[in-house]
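Try this one yourself first.
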């Protein structure tokens, strides 16, 4: 766009293995698709998934997590048993409407459809 200047903000991301990453933005600590089980095989509809490498960190090593960004919970390569247990200690999990197996995904009265932005509840912003 002519006449505007763009600033590039770099956000350090700690890759923990697979889809799991930790980053901080706006004073909040975000974790994506928590997978912390040791290597193992999972039975899933239509076959199996095999995790071949451990996570680079354990949940207890991560410190405070304010928000989990969960792409979906339909299979364990995006949310495994240890990741699911971690959700109980996180104030806010944002995920798809189809993630019915996850409790605490935010207020159930959120409107359906798409929005360009969401306000993070105050509880998730508290240190």
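Now uncover the answer:
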């Amino acid at each position: 766009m002519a006449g505007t200047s763009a600033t590039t903000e770099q956000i350090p991301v700690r890759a923990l293995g697979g889809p799991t990453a930790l980053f901080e933005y706006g004073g909040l600590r975000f974790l994506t698709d928590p997978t912390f089980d040791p290597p193992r095989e999972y039975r899933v509809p239509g076959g199996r998934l095999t995790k071949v490498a451990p996570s680079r960190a354990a949940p207890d090593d991560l410190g405070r997590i304010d928000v989990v960004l969960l792409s979906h919970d339909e299979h364990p390569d995006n949310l495994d048993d240890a990741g699911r247990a971690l959700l109980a200690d996180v104030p806010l999990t944002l995920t798809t409407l189809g993630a019915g197996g996850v409790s605490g995904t935010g207020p159930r009265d959120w409107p359906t459809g798409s929005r360009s932005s969401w306000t993070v509840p105050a509880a998730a912003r508290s240190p």
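Discussion: Residues 13-107 form one domain. The helical segments are 81-86, 122-125.
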